[in-house]
Amino acid sequence: MTSRLPDSSEESLNLVRRRILAITWVVTAIHGLFGTLGGAYALGSDRRGDQIILLVVSVPLAFIIFGVTRVILDKPVFTWRSLPFLLVLLVPTVAAFFWIL
Q1: Dihedral sign of CA atoms 86, 26, 29, 66 in order
Q2: CA-to-CA dists, residue 7 to 10, 12, 18, 73, angstroms
Q3: What confidence score (pLDDT) does residue 3 get?
Q4: Which pLDDT tens digit goes with each residue over 65-84?
């Protein structure tokens, strides 16, 4: 005899799984974003062109992190309620523009 969870319990379990996956994805991907920004800083001012390329690459990277996280959570990608989270992801990139350049 197999024991099946009721439908509401299964939905709750799937919601928890999605949230854990989203948290794991965001933490891992944010390290990549900070690595890109740190790499731009580590290059030094004598390689200004490479620094600018890394800074420009960090913007689409932030959008990808945001979009994939929303897809994992099974939410609409762009809504007014999700806009603050997108801005939080872009803060390190904007700060790096002023810090590096």
Answers
A1: negative
A2: 5, 9, 16, 19
A3: 67
A4: 999 999 999 999 888 998 99
DSSP for residue 47 = G
Residue-wise pLDDT for 3-62, tens only, equals 666 677 888 889 999 999 999 999 999 999 999 999 999 988 888 899 999 999 999 999
Q: Which residues of 32-55 are buried (b: 16+ CB within 10 A; e: fewer)?
A: ebeebbeebeebeeeeeeebeebb
∠ CA(78), CA(79), CA(84), 5° rounding?
95
Q: How many CA atoms lie within 13 A of 48 on its CB side?
A: 3
- CA angle centred on 91, ends 21 and 28, rounded to 5°: 25
Which residue reads 């379990």 in tokens? Answer: 13
What H or E segment, with its residue span, contains residue 11? helix 7-43
Res 71: pLDDT: 94
